[in-house]
Amino acid sequence: MITINMHEAKTRLSALVKKVEQEGQTVTICRDGKPVAELKSISRKPLNRPQIPA
Question: How buried is residue 47: exposed, middle or buried, by Cβ count under 10 Å (0-12/13-18/19+)?
Fold first, then answer.
């Protein structure tokens, strides 16, 4: 897990998203030393839609 301040998150957002996407890292973003948000990968599960015969 990576912990960074708000300014650094703003400056490095593209690189952080890439790291989250490729490595599965979670980034905790802090304001005044307190965690306020997390940037993490979302799992892409296939939708379970019923199959209708044609």
Answer: exposed
Question: Of 25, 22, 23, 28, nearest to 8 (Cα)?
Answer: 28
Prediction pTM value: 0.73
Distance CA 4, CA 51 (A): 45
DSSP code string of 9-38: HHHTHHHHHHHHHHH---EEEEETTEEEEE
| CA 39 to chain CA centroid, nearest Å | 3
- The 10s digit of each residue's pLDDT in 6-53 is 999 999 999 999 999 999 999 999 999 999 999 999 876 555 666 677
Query: Length of the chain in residues, anyone?
Result: 54
